[in-house]
Amino acid sequence: MLLEFKTKNYKSFKEELVFPMIPAPKQKGLDYSILTEQIGKNRYKALSSSVIYGPNASGKTNLIGAMDTFKSIILRGHINNEDNKENPNTAACRLELIPNISNADKPVSFSIKFIEEDLLIEYSLTAGIGEFAESSYNRKIIEEVLTVNEKLVFKRKNDLEIDSLKHIKKYMVNEFDKNKEILIKVAKNNLHDNELFLQNGFKNMFSSKLVTLITNWLDKKLVVILKSNAMQVNYNIDAPKKELIYIDKVIDKAAKEFGINSNALGFKIEGEENKAVLCSLINKDGKTKYIPADIFESYGTMRFVNLFNFILLSFIKGGTIVIDEFDASLHPMALMNIINIFHDNDINIKKAQLIFNTHNPIFLNKNLFRRDEIKFVERDDLTHESTLYSLSDFGTAGKTGVRKDEDYMNNYFIDRYGAIKEVDFKSIVKELMEIKKDDCK
């Protein structure tokens, strides 16, 4: 369950960006969308969803890209570049593309706070990676901090500080108590400027169990879909070995509910590796023909089926799914229904979360989203710097206040919240046509 994500000096976010999934104080209504976790005597709350608005090039995708970049860095365990052509987020692979252009060689920082297996985990990382596009810079990790249940586990800065770790004793290596001082000394001597202590020294010498828990959550439960129009799903089909055509009843039912051109959708199992290819099944004259779905079904249907697979996994695992352009090519009614399922406590029993950006104003609805779930990204035309804020930041009183009974959508279009930009191409086209008129003379 994600509680908070932060970043600083990442692309258009020069100042610290704080993306909260914790309910704002004094917000009432739609309490069914609040998730709760009990850890000891402490009770933690989180939002089940969040929608992000803003004009084109405001920084919405940068926010989601920052999550993906941070996740990628932790999973590989270092701040070197990597050659990963499958990741559409280039900045996650070429870190010199991360820094804010106007912020010189200031460090980049990330932080995440989440709950997993009754543990409140907070991990932060600050790294010096040079100026924008400076690929030859000698990168260095400046600070790295891990806390569990609000108690320090380790802090790496000028020195390496490791706490008593009694609060995570069951996750530690068996010989930790006897050899603590030796292990700390060895860890200090083996610190590398470009390697994460979390994934290297701490994992190898202190607690592989805890690090595995953290990395599994990031890898399996924090699903970031960037440039979702290009997403490809590798279907893992548990079909009988002799069965060449397999129909997943859940996917097929969802596709029919959404609308498909064929009689059904199935998976054709091909090759020795049992690769599953999504197919349209067409019944004619008592015979069934199998056609690759991507050439028979509509683009919207294919995108829905691919996306729905991730949605299902988030409900099954209790994951957090973050989607860039959630509404692209999909009907608003289908999207509204998916959002309502995330808000349904009787269905969302594993406490899954949905975060997405959009341009569609239909979600600016007080009956669908809480005020603290509606967020805006705005970019300054002069500094080109992005800022994030929530509808709940406006309050309900005063000249800038927004009352609960107001029309959120209408307010957005009359620029009550910002994060909207007038677009007028008329003068550009008019100038072009004047030039063309002159050329014809």
Short structural description:
The protein has 441 residues and is of the alpha+beta class.
Strand order of the largest sheet: 2-1-6-7-8-9-10
What is the number of helical segments per DSSP (H or I, 4+ residues)?
Answer: 11
Number of strands: 19
User: What shape does the CA trace take?
Assistant: globular
Oligomeric state of this protein: single chain
CATH class of the largest domain: Alpha Beta
What is the average per-residue confidence, as pLDDT, rounded to a whole number? 86
CATH topology of the largest domain: Rossmann fold
How many domain regions?
Answer: 2
Helix content: 25-40%
Strand content: 25-35%
Structure description:
With 441 residues, the protein is an alpha+beta fold. It folds into 2 domains: 1-227 and 324-441, Rossmann fold; 245-299, no CATH class. The protein has 11 helices and 19 strands. It has helices spanning 60-76, 90-93, 176-189, 198-205, 208-221, 249-258, 293-296, 299-317, 332-342, 408-413, 426-440, and strands at 2-8, 17-20, 34-39, 42-47, 49-53, 108-116, 119-128, 140-148, 151-156, 160-162, 222-225, 245-246, 264-270, 275-284, 287-292, 320-323, 353-357, 374-379, 386-390. It has a 7-stranded antiparallel beta sheet with strand order 2-1-6-7-8-9-10. Strands 11-16-17-5-18-19 form a 6-stranded mixed beta sheet, with helices on both faces. Helix 4 packs across helix 5 and helix 6 (249-258) crosses helix 8 (299-317). The chain is globular and about 80 Å long. It starts with a strand and ends with a helix.
